[in-house]
Design brief:
Strand content: 5-15%
Number of strands: 18
Structural class: alpha+beta
Largest sheet: 7 strands, antiparallel
Number of helices: 45
Low-confidence stretches: 1-83, 348-392, 647-653, 913-918, 1018-1027, 1128-1149, 1313-1323, 1346-1460
Oligomer: single chain
Radius of gyration: 58 Å
Shape: elongated
Length: about 1450
């Protein structure tokens, strides 16, 4: 370990100084009050700049309480400008003040050095709470930058959306908060706090996430925290092995060297000044420091005695009787210090002997066992600890027993000639009478060893014997042959290096020049302070002048003895106890006073006591000086012996004297020689504590005012050693902490509470026995200072409670607000035993929280105003700016959001006080604080709402924001502000509902007048996102009703009665509107259905308007359950017995479902009637072929001769095609499948019944072949068609159908038409193809595929294209006339391939519908290749009754015949 004055450490320090700032004027401005004029003073005394200082964190230069901090590069002290403004006298006064300040700091540093060098009252605490690194302003910006980089995706850290949202929320709420910047400026935010706040926020988020199988929420929490650590990790980690600067050791126990460096920074002492002081004060000598302490205690005892004689020297006390008690306390404190010093184990003095270790080339040396030596030395002093300081106790020889550890290493033998090279040799070692130890056996040609022997002896003058043996080769020999012997007499001062010793051999031996290389190391025990040979003579001891071996032994801290020893003796032959003796140099002439003829000794000194004296002498001067200084430290005398002036001085004397000369040259001697008893240590300690606090608050840790373990240790040691009163210490500490609080630096309230409780217990008169420091006296200064601090503390606490959101943002520091409340209660106490009345504490906190509400609201209003100005700059406006009401309302809504966030943060971060038993009433005060806060908001809200124009609804979001928060807060729900909010918005809600009801009614009236009944086609509404049904007017109606009910429901009206009233009113309104809708729809349905059918009835297809109307009614049925029922129950069913009277007049509203069902049934009947009329007309055509009628005979003849009317199959296929087309239209365009199935069943039943009736009427007649083939085709195909639509077998195979089937079988047997019919009907491929087509349409409808395209194309085909299978339109038909509604089917464009369309013929034929099956195209090609039988119709000649020629008609799938 290098000494503090070593050049290597100094160079190390000098190389790193320039990267840190200096602080020389830190304390000068604090006392003088001229901090702005104080210079940096970094080099005012010359020399290199000071080492590491934490006053500049993150490279930024900060201003301390005492002045500016320099940049560490030696800038001139005052600026040139300030020098010119000062007179010469002022400059001189300023320089003198700076010089006085420097002297005071150096003197204070001297006392601190002594406290660190030899502590005996305190130790460094190792149980203090760990302080985390604080976040600086630059650190906060870096943290924000890192988080922003992560959110932008610039990092490689994997994340999901949930974690991204959590980090974004953390950034917006916490990192970008102005309050966080405030706490960072106050030095109270640590990196640990940031991490814990993030943890707190994600805990709430993760609790709301759904459970995931196989992934616990704890795992998610751990993963997220690991990602946060990866985001915020330090970019520049410390290199392994790099030594930490002192400022980074805020939590560790420091070594002495680190403590020296720490207080160099605190007191702004230069490194070279420290080195001068260290060497001159001999801080590395524990004996010197212990002697200095003994001298200080003796001086304090003399001062106490003087005070006892002259009471005017005492401080002024609160009571006169305390003066005697003060004397007792001072004596008790001195005795305590003496006891503490006496209880310390005796330390080994002198410098480290590591430099005298054996060279590394020597192998096998074992390390010294220091611990065992320490335990043995302490045990030897156990009896000495019982020495009583009140009187001198005579020591016995058993009290000065010494124990020495001796290490003997035999290394090599030289000049061994008497034995052959192959002979085995070895050595033995022994000390006095101890057991012998032997080395390893080696050959004589290689006489080398590395064996070490450890011995323990109590002889100050031991004898070490090393013998060399050769192994006897004889078989019967018992002893080995001794070749030589070395005798060594070591002392603790002997050389530890290996030496060659000549061996004693027998006279006839050949080994006369035999030498053995031996290293002997004799350790000095800790209680031996010095040893050596002296000449001595005294009156009672050592009566004869001769040279003896003396040892200075320390028995205890206050007891020393000088003993003389003889060789091989453990007990002293004579001894002298040094209590009461003084030592000094004496001239040789003065020595003659003792005896005229003293032979031996050149340099003399003597020890003197009343009635006794002893003369000592040494042969050389350095030895004399060392003995005198050892005696000086042992006697504890105040006078320091001065050596006589001689011409020749040894190197040792030159070194010690050189340190003193250098200290004297730099003016340090006056500080070292200053008597501590002459200083006011209370004032010095106040300065030391203030500077230590300044340093601590500027170091890289969020200390909150808590000192480091090293600072606590030094301050405790200083107070105990120099008599600083505990109450004064804590009063100064409180004063410093309050000053920092008033400067908005963050201080832990628990720390203030600790010091305040100590002072209050002292000032209010606890007995000395009850107090930890045993002090019961109270000075007048302490009482006055305590009263002043108490009032300042009360004001500060009220300020902190008023600004609790800014003094303790986000609940940080943790538990600070709770500690503040406890401290306030303690401050309000009149004394330590009488508790303060709860009402008094409550009133103080209530007043503070009332002010807090105003402060918080004003700050939020200002923040909202700044945001509004940034969003809407008014730079070009001149004069008074008039803000429109809408802008004011927007700002008010933003302010409401900020207010809600504020109160939610209060609940989140300060909720711990709502469940505290000690402050059970605090939650009530917080509620009252919130109500006051909202009352301030209510004033602005009322003013802004009053400025809004009538019938504007932009203020409803404001109500939703406020009500959603208030209704979830159990404390504020239905409170004053909540009631005020309800009363303010209730008229607006009623007015809004009234206007909406009128608006919806008008939209129904106007909408249905202009309605075109176009199917909306399941197009999702932008605001709803669900498929729509029906027409535009109905969709708009249902959306408005649903939106209105959703809006009112989302208001969550706080008054249950009014909310129920609104709900009932909206439900009844919906009933009225839906009823009006279906009535108008049904009227339009009847009108549309009355439109006639064209000449060819089988070409009729249901218009899309009819389907749209049906969908409106069906959709109304679905919407009525949601819009007209309360909680899913119909209004009529939800009535209570006592509400019958209220709802009786509205009972017709409860029948809306019945009305919808009735309307739906009527539509079904009318629609089926319309479709049945086509069958009725078709049967009318067949009736013309009845047997016995004149028209039937004519048609039969014409058909046989020239095939004028074709076969009955053509008419049957036309009707089947009609059925198919309308089935597809109904199934595709009507959304309710159940309704579609019902109409299919009813249509089928009516058709079968009509066919049965028509055949029954002709039971007595046989059917014409035309009739037979037509009906046979219809009967077979409709069964298949309806079976494909999903009708059940029992409904298809009804009695009517069975009768028809039997009759047709009979008629077909009668008519010999089987071959022709087979040719006309084809095979079963048509049925199979139709089956596939229907199934494909059903699947497409179920999936919702191509709905929009199908609907658009179907509408175009119905309005522009003829029904498949009917050929091109007849000439002269032209386009449909305007005003006739959608065009009828069958009036479409001509066939493809016939050239461009003629005028009036409409656009070309559209493409085939997407719903048709794909396999029909191949079948169409196959049909084109097959030539049908029969003769073609003459070109251009129409068929009878407008029917196409059988040879030219298309196939049942609607594809044109190749010959057509």
């Amino acid at each position: 370990m290098l000494e503090p004055s070593s050049s290597e450490e100094e160079d190390d320090d000098l190389n790193t100084q320039n990267s840190f700032t200096t602080q020389d004027s830190l304390s000068s401005g604090y006392k003088s009050g001229n901090s702005l004029l104080e210079p940096p003073g970094a080099h005012q005394n010359g020399g290199p700049p000071r080492a590491v200082s934490p006053m500049s964190v993150d490279g930024s230069t900060k201003t301390g309480p005492g002045g500016r901090i320099g940049d560490g590069r030696g800038s001139p002290s005052p600026s040139l400008t300030s020098e010119k403004t000062l007179t010469e006298a002022e400059i001189a006064e300023k320089q003198q003040r700076e010089e006085d300040e420097r002297k005071q700091r150096i003197q204070l540093y001297v006392f601190v050095l002594r406290s660190i060098a030899y502590p005996f009252n305190a130790k460094q605490p190792n149980d203090m709470i760990k302080r985390h690194h604080k976040v600086t302003k630059d650190g906060l910006e870096k943290l924000r930058t890192k988080v922003d980089s992560f959110l932008k995706g610039e990092t490689q850290i994997p994340s999901d959306e949930a974690f991204q949202n959590a980090v974004h929320c953390y950034t917006e709420i916490f990192l970008k908060s102005e309050r966080v910047s405030g706490i960072v400026a106050g030095g109270g935010l640590s990196q640990h706090d940031c991490r814990e706040i993030f943890r707190h926020q994600i805990e709430k988020r993760i609790r709301t996430l759904p459970e995931i199988d196989g992934l616990s929420k704890d795992t998610v929490m751990t993963s997220w925290m690991a990602k946060y650590d990866a985001i915020t990790k330090d970019d520049e980690p410390r290199r392994p092995g790099q030594r930490l600067p002192t400022s980074m050791l805020g939590n560790e126990v420091m070594s002495k060297e680190q403590l020296y460096d720490l207080f160099q920074q605190v007191l702004n002492v230069k490194k070279f000044e420290h080195q001068l002081l260290y060497n001159a004060m001999q801080l590395d000598s524990s004996d010197e420091q212990a002697a200095a302490i003994r001298r200080e205690l003796d001086a304090r005892r003399e001062k106490v005695s003087e005070m006892e004689r002259n009471r005017k020297l005492m401080p002024k006390f609160v009571l006169k009787d305390m003066e005697g008690l003060y004397i007792e306390e001072m004596n008790m404190a001195i005795n305590t210090l003496k006891g503490n010093l006496e209880s310390l184990p005796v330390q080994q003095g002198g410098k480290s002997e590591k430099s005298n270790m054996l060279p590394k080339s020597i192998r096998g040396m074992k390390p010294r066992r220091r611990s065992s030596m320490l335990s043995r030395s302490q045990s030897s002093l156990s009896r000495g600890d019982e020495v009583d300081e009140s009187h001198v106790t005579q020591l016995s020889k058993s009290d000065v027993v010494l124990t020495f550890q001796i290490e003997v290493v035999v290394l090599e033998v030289r000049n061994l000639k008497s034995v052959p090279g192959t002979r085995i040799i070895y050595c033995t070692m022994e000390v006095d009478t101890s057991d012998k130890l032997a080395t390893d056996q080696v050959e004589a040609s290689k006489p080398y060893w590395d064996t070490q022997g450890d011995f323990s002896t109590s002889h100050p003058l031991p004898v070490v014997k090393v013998k060399l043996y050769s192994e006897n080769p004889g078989m019967l020999s018992l002893d080995d042959k001794e070749l030589g012997k070395v005798v060594i007499r070591p002392t603790p001062l002997s050389s530890k290096a290996p030496e060659w010793y000549k061996a004693n051999v027998s006279k006839g031996s050949q080994d006369q020049e035999l030498k053995i290389k031996v290293a002997v190391r004799m350790d000095k025990p800790m209680n031996m302070k010095h040893c050596g040979y002296l000449y001595a003579m005294g009156k009672t001891v050592w009566k004869k002048w001769k040279k003896r071996y003396f040892v200075l032994v320390q028995v205890s801290q206050y007891t020393f003895a000088i003993c003389s020893y003889k060789e091989k003796k453990s007990d002293p032959s004579e001894m002298l106890q040094l209590d009461g003796y003084t030592v000094d140099y004496i001239e040789p002439a003065g020595a003659m006073f003792y005896h005229m003829n003293l032979e031996g000794g050149k340099f003399f000194f003597n020890t003197v006591r009343e009635g006794d004296s002893v003369l000592f002498a040494t042969e050389d001067e350095p030895d004399s000086h060392n003995w005198v200084m050892a005696f000086y430290r042992a006697t504890g005398q105040a006078h320091r012996p001065a050596p006589p002036v001689t011409t020749g001085k040894s190197s040792s004397l030159n070194k010690n004297q050189g340190d003193a000369d250098r200290a004297r040259k730099h003016g340090m001697e006056e500080y070292i020689a200053a008597d501590p008893i002459t200083f006011d240590h209370h004032a010095l300690f106040a300065k030391l504590q203030n500077l230590s606090l300044d340093w601590r608050l500027q170091d890289p840790f969020a200390s909150l005012g808590w000192f480091t373990p090293g600072q606590v240790f030094v301050l405790d040691e200083y107070c105990a050693r120099y008599g600083v009163r505990g109450c004064f210490r804590h009063l100064c500490y409180l004063e410093d902490l309050l000053e920092k609080c008033e400067k908005h630096q963050l201080i832990d309230p628990t720390l203030i509470h600790f010091s305040y409780a100590f002072c209050a217990s002292h000032v209010h008169g606890n007995s000395a026995k009850e107090r930890s420091d045993g002090v019961g006296t109270v000075t007048q200064e302490e009482k006055e200072k305590f009263t002043e601090i108490k009032e300042r503390l009360r004001v500060q606490l009220e300020y902190q409670l008023t600004n609790f959101r800014f003094c303790f943002p986000f609940g940080r520091p943790e538990g600070a607000l709770k500690s503040t409340l406890s401290l306030l209660e303690r401050v309000l106490m009149k004394d330590i035993s009488t508790p303060v009345p709860p009402n008094e504490v409550r009133s103080v906190i209530k007043k503070s929280l009332e002010n807090a509400a105003l402060v918080n609201y004003e700050r939020l209003s200002e923040e909202a105003r700044i945001e509004a100005d940034l969003a809407n700059p008014q730079e070009d406006m001149v004069g008074e700016v008039i803000v429109p009401p809408s802008r004011k309302l927007e700002d008010l809504i933003r302010l409401a959001e900020l207010c809600v966030d504020l109160l939610r943060q209060n609940e989140e971060f300060y909720a711990e006080f709502q469940n505290e038993t000690a402050f059970a009433w605090f939650s009530d005060l917080l509620v009252e604080h919130s109500e006051i806060f909202w009352s301030l908001f209510a004033v602005d809200m009322d003013n802004i709402l009053a400025e809004q124009p009538p019938d504007t609804w932009d203020s409803f979001p404001l109500f939703q924001i406020l009500n959603d928060y208030l209704r979830t807060d159990d404390n504020l729900k239905n409170g004053k502000f909540h009631q005020h909010l309800r009363d303010t918005f209730a008229p607006q809600v009623v007015r809004y509902v009234d206007l909406m009801e009128s608006s919806i009614a008008q939209s129904i009236h106007k909408g249905f007048e202009k309605e075109r009944w176009e199917i909306k086609g399941r197009v999702p509404r932008p605001c709803v996102g669900k498929p729509s049904n029906g027409c535009a007017t109905s969709e708009d109606l249902f959306w408005k009703l649903d939106a209105l009910q959703s809006f009112i429901r989302d208001l969550h009206w706080p008054d249950p009665e009014f909310g129920h009233h609104l709900n009932q009113r909206l439900k009844l309104m919906a009933c009225d509107m839906i009823e009006s809708c279906i009535q108008r729809t049904y009227t339009s349905f009847e009108t549309q259905l009355k439109k006639g059918i064209l000449i060819d009835a089988t070409t009729y297809v249901l218009p899309s308007e009819i389907c749209a109307m049906v969908n409106v009614v069906l959709d109304a049925k679905n919407q009525s359950l949601k819009l007209c029922a309360v909680d899913g129950v119909d209004v009529d069913k939800s009535k209570k017995p006592d509400e019958n009277a209220k709802t009786k007049k509205h009972k017709y509203h409860t029948k809306i479902d019945d009305q919808i069902e009735k309307t739906s049934a009527n539509m079904r009947v009318l629609l089926i009637g319309k479709l049945i009329s086509v069958l009725e007309k078709t049967l009318g055509k067949l009736s013309a072929y009845d047997e016995g009628s004149m028209m039937g005979s004519f048609l039969s003849f014409a058909n046989k001769k020239i095939n004028v009317t074709g076969t009955g199959v053509d008419l049957g296929k036309s009707y089947v095609s009609f059925v198919r087309n309308n089935m597809d239209t109904i199934a595709k365009r009507i959304t309710d499948d159940l309704w579609v199935l019902n109409i299919m069943e009813k249509w089928y039943f009516d058709q079968v019944q009509m066919l049965s009736t028509w055949l029954t009427d002709r039971l007595d007649k046989s059917l014409h072949p035309f009739q037979c083939t037509c009906l046979a085709h219809i009967v077979k195909k409709i069964y298949t068609e309806y079976e494909l639509q999903g009708m059940e077998e029992d409904k298809l195979n009804s009695n009517f159908y069975q009768q028809i089937e039997q009759r047709m079988a009979t008629e077909e047997a009668t008519c010999v038409l089987q071959n022709a019919e087979a040719n006309e009907n084809g095979d079963d491929s048509d049925d199979e193809r139709r089956r596939k087509q229907v199934e494909a349409k059903k699947k497409a409808k179920a999936r919702g595929d191509n709905k929009d395209d199908d609907d658009d194309k179907l509408q175009r085909q119905q309005s522009k294209v003829s029904v498949p299978g009917k050929g091109p339109p007849q000439p002269g038909k032209g386009p449909p006339q305007p005003g006739k509604g959608p065009p009828q089917p069958g009036k479409g464009p001509p066939q493809q391939g016939k050239g461009p369309p003629q005028p009036g013929k409409g656009p070309p034929k559209p493409k085939k519908m997407d719903s048709d099956s794909s396999d029909t195209e191949g079948e169409e090609d196959a049909k084109k290749k097959t030539k049908p039988k029969g003769k073609p119709n003459p070109q251009g000649k129409p068929n009878p009754q407008g029917k196409p020629n059988p040879q030219g008609k298309p196939n049942p799938q609607g594809k044109p015949n190749p010959q057509g």
